[in-house]
Amino acid sequence: MARRPAGRRAPQPATLIPGDGIGPEVIDSAVRMVEAAGGRIAWDVQLAGKAAFETLGTAIPDSLLASLRRTRVGLKGPLETQIGRVGYRSVNVALRKTFDLYANVRPIRSLPGVRSAFSGVDLVVVRENTEDVYAGIEHQIAPGVVEAVKVITARASRRIARFAFELARRQRRREIVAIHKANIMKLSDGLFLACAREVARQHRGIQYSELIVDNACMQLVLRPQDFDVLLLENLYGDIVSDLCAGLVGGLGLVPGANLGARHAIFEAVHGTAPDIAGKNLANPLAAILSATMLLRHVGQTRPAARIERAVSRLLREARVRTRDLGGRSTTAEVTARLIALL
Ligand code: NAD
User: Fold this and answer.
1) Number of Cβ within a 10 Å radius of residue 100
2) 242 has catalytic annotation
3) Is the pTM of this model over 0.90?
4) Is 236 a catalytic residue?
5) 169-195 pLDDT, tens per residue?
6) Which residue of 65, 94, 173, 181 is 20 to 30 Å from 73, comparing CA positions?
7) How many angstroms is it from 197 CA to the middle of ligand 1?
8) Is 251 in the pocket of ligand 1 (CB under 6 A)?
9) Per-residue pLDDT tens digits for 133-170
């Protein structure tokens, strides 16, 4: 079959969800970077979360689901989920379940020129994304007594363990550590570990070890350079991801991917940051690096590499950076400088 030259390939359709809070600001930066770097993406902009609820009366509009079914790939800003009994349920969780985005991947790397407690950190958080307490099964047994159900299945545990070993093999990583609390949750975390061990036996070339989650947190803040691939259930993965972001300079820097067999949604680890939303203060780098993960996912490695180089140069020259990194620049100024550095 004749292949078109790369330059003339039709743009890749992708769903774009600006999100809530700082979402529209950082996603706008990411889209401008992709365009400026020569990425060929045909964005289909869709509302979700609070923005959708306020205009369309639903946090997950049908048009959003239809778009993701069609494009199979999305770039998403953070979505607000209200705390406690009020409001709609988490749209993030709903999207991950609807599209069976079972693997949440968050590369945590020390970046040049970023002041943080550590250097030389290069690890990947692999978080199971579909079950655990995120199943959302909670009930009141009697007034003042509430139960939350933690769901762990062998199928999902084996699947995420296989994913982690496969990622380690592809990225030439040496070691996976499964993080758990099976000393207390003997059945649920016990099953997760049993599945991880079973998969580890089939991948002898990659070292496998285990750490209890509290100890893992301490080891991570003492010697993060010793870690390579972390394999975690959903809740531990959520918490440890933010901890790991703190090791390399904060939430403004860490990108992520939610991956399934057919669909993929890319998003930063951070949330809507209501304290700085709408003020042009948010660090757009996490969203921009999430966009580079999307570009690589769809085979557009050149624009991805160009953006990554520009980010490295921006951080190294240490002139233009947002407040979270000790600078005074705005989101727009960072974006403009990055485009100049391309
Ligand atoms: P958050 O990540 O929004 O903010 C935590 C802290 O980090 C804040 O001080 C914030 O200002 C700072 N921060 C985050 N991103 C930043 C950036 N790009 N640049 C500079 N500073 C940044 O966490 P939160 O306050 O716990 O959550 C706020 C809301 O976000 C909640 O409704 C929560 O449910 C939602 N949330 C959504 C997602 C998602 O959509 N994937 C993820 C996490 C939290």
Assistant:
1) 17
2) no
3) yes
4) no
5) 999 999 999 999 999 999 999 999 999
6) 173
7) 34
8) yes
9) 988 889 999 999 999 999 999 999 999 999 999 999 99
